[in-house]
Specification:
By secondary structure, the chain is α/β, with parallel strands linked by helices. The chain has helices at residues 2-13, 19-26, 46-49, 57-62, 84-99, 101-124, 137-147, 164-177, 195-205, 228-239, 265-268, 309-316, 325-329, 337-341, 343-353, 355-374, 403-412, 437-450, and strands at residues 72-73, 131-134, 155-159, 180-184, 210-216, 249-253, 272-276, 288-292, 379-381, 394-398, 415-416, 418-419, 427-429. The structure holds pyridoxal-5'-phosphate (PLP).
Length: 451
């Protein structure tokens, strides 16, 4: 109904020439009512209780990727190759848009947009009105940290372990607005972290001025996975008795957790979670999400004009936009819709495999890799052995060897790894649903040969 009114409004205003434009706008509107619950229970591992890797096993899953079969893909998570259902969806939408952009948008835009948001909500938990689409983690972090409201005297606390995207988004915010930033260190030796010490370090890092805790769930520089639910519980404890405007909001870069960790996002207790969908989720390149707790959305304003009905309708009528905050926060403009809409298939791919099955598989391969590396003289594991405090990323150091050179040496042997882009670089491997036990054993053997 809202959509029809908007179309009529826009047509009346004579501001747009063709129906395709309207459909394009329609395609960018996060569920305005915010009540579009997904059909499946994100949090559960239902998929988990479902088929797991399916009849073809994990080799069958691997077979759905066009990755070079002659190589062992331990850096596939850096920027994803996507599996067949995603590739086919992209191709189908691309063809439709190439043939008749206006018509395809008009006929299919709203439905495909809703499908993608519903699949995201089914995967993440909550409802589709809580999900905003972006182009990447970096996009989402920039929008979130640029738009969170801070009152005079309030500060943002981040950690020394976060990636450039978080630090730079906050630095830009501080430069623009004078916002106060503080960095805390959660650990000195990543391999020796414990849940208790990590939570205690966060508790120590908060003070009465802290409004935002900006952290990364799985550290891409060390492989440490923060105990997010426990940290959120500690923050909730800190917040007890504080006025809503003084409570600490927990925000997380979750890009190395999305597609690996099985928890439903609402169960974690965080306020905002930001991730690209083109790493461990193996979704379309150039896609990402920001998930926000319903009440928390009120704390953030948009930066890029939205193409939501509320935004454009208000502009036409010459008033300030009002309406669901996620819709107004989501960047507008026309998008690479063939990729955005194919997010439906990316989330469904994981739901069909089962979130728990994917988590268990990733964890089993990472453990196998760590066990193999631990016995090699000259190799120091940087990532914790404990699967509760690590995810798919495995970082290591080889005595006397430069990580960049090791990456090149491994590549010559068909083993694709990466070096961490941090001041203290490490060799980094990411076993995932596109690697096998054999790949892991080959990587261990190759590193033994290089140590
Ligand atoms: C922790 C972390 N956040 C964000 C990014 C950037 O992700 P995106 O390409 O989705 O912006 C990376 C690495 O690429 C990362 O390691």
């Amino acid at each position: 109904m809202e959509e029809l009114d908007r179309r009529a409004l826009l047509r009346r205003a004579g501001l747009v020439a063709g129906a395709g434009v309207l459909a394009g706008l329609a395609g960018c509107d996060p569920d305005p009512a915010g009540n579009g619950r997904g059909t499946g229970p994100a949090g559960q591992t239902a998929g988990a209780a479902g088929q797991g890797a399916g009849p073809g096993g994990w080799a069958g899953v691997r077979g759905q990727f066009e990755l070079d079969p002659g190589k062992r893909h331990f850096a596939a998570f850096v920027l994803a190759s996507h599996p067949r259902p995603v590739a086919e969806a992209i191709e189908q939408h691309r063809r439709g848009l190439q043939a008749d952009t206006d018509g395809y948008l008009e006929d299919h835009g709203q439905r495909l947009d809703r499908q993608a948001r519903t699949a995201a909500a089914d995967y993440l938990g909550g409802d589709r009105g809580q999900v905003v689409f972006t182009r990447s983690t970096t996009d989402g972090l920039g929008l979130l940290y640029g738009g969170l409201r801070l009152r005079p005297g309030q500060e943002v606390v981040t950690t020394t372990h976060d990636f450039y995207s978080t630090h730079e988004a906050l630095r830009l915010r501080a430069e623009r607005t004078g916002a106060r930033l503080r960095r805390i260190t959660l650990y000195e030796d990543p391999a020796a972290v414990t849940t208790g010490r990590l939570v205690a370090a966060v508790r120590r890092g908060l003070d009465p001025r802290t409004r935002v805790l900006a952290q990364t769930w799985v550290h891409s520089g060390t492989g440490v996975k923060l105990p997010m639910a426990e940290i959120c519980a500690a923050v909730a404890d800190h917040n007890r008795g504080r006025a809503p405007a003084d409570r600490v909001l927990v925000c997380a870069d979750a890009v190395h957790a999305l597609g690996v960790e099985p928890e439903a996002v609402p169960d974690l207790g965080c306020d905002f979670l930001v991730a690209g969908c083109h790493k461990w989720l193996f979704g379309p390149r150039g896609t990402g999400v920001v998930w926000g707790r319903r009440e928390a959305w009120a704390e953030v304003t948009g930066t890029v004009p939205s193409f939501s009905g509320a935004g454009i309708g208000a502009w036409i009528e010459g008033r300030k936009p009002a309406g669901p905050r996620p819709a107004l926060f989501e960047p507008g403009g026309y998008h690479a819709y063939e990729h955005r809409w194919a997010l439906a298939e990316a989330f469904r791919f994981h739901l069909d495999l089962g979130k728990r099955a994917v988590a268990d598989r990733t964890r089993a391969l990472a453990t196998r890799l760590k066990d193999g590396l631990a016995g090699i003289p000259g190799v120091r594991l940087v990532t914790p052995r404990d699967p509760e405090l690590s995810a798919g990323i495995v970082c290591l150091e080889v005595a006397g060897r430069n990580p960049g050179e090791l990456v090149a040496d491994l590549r010559r042997q068909g083993i694709l790894a990466s070096a961490t882009p941090y001041a203290e670089p490490y060799l980094r491997l990411g076993p995932s649903i596109v690697t096998s036990e054999e790949d892991v054993d080959a990587a261990v053997a190759a590193i033994r040969g290089l140590a």
